[in-house]
Amino acid sequence: MPTEVAKSTLLISGPRFYSQADEDHFFAWLQSIPEIEKVTGVVRDLELTVRRPMDKESLRDLIALMRRYNLDRGPLRPLCAEQTDEYFRNSWMVSG
Fold this sequence. Notes:
Layout: E1 6-12, H1 20-32, E2 36-42, E3 45-52, H2 56-68, H3 77-81, H4 91-94
Antiparallel strand pairs: 1-3, 2-3
């Protein structure tokens, strides 16, 4: 019998795109992160359904994507708090 995987929904204030290619690259990167199961647009924001706890590489990629697009990383705090690696506990990681 398969074990149940915990999931969580994160609401991310949507990015601003400067070209169609910019938008395409953003969503391609987002959808390439294995722990993200679903991405839904909600008006100008995004709702991400993620598996928890998130593996380190997926979380690093999500943080990098959000930093690159200058998105508020505050919604990632609970995901970072679940990690044992000190890298994820730095205040700069989820601020801004």
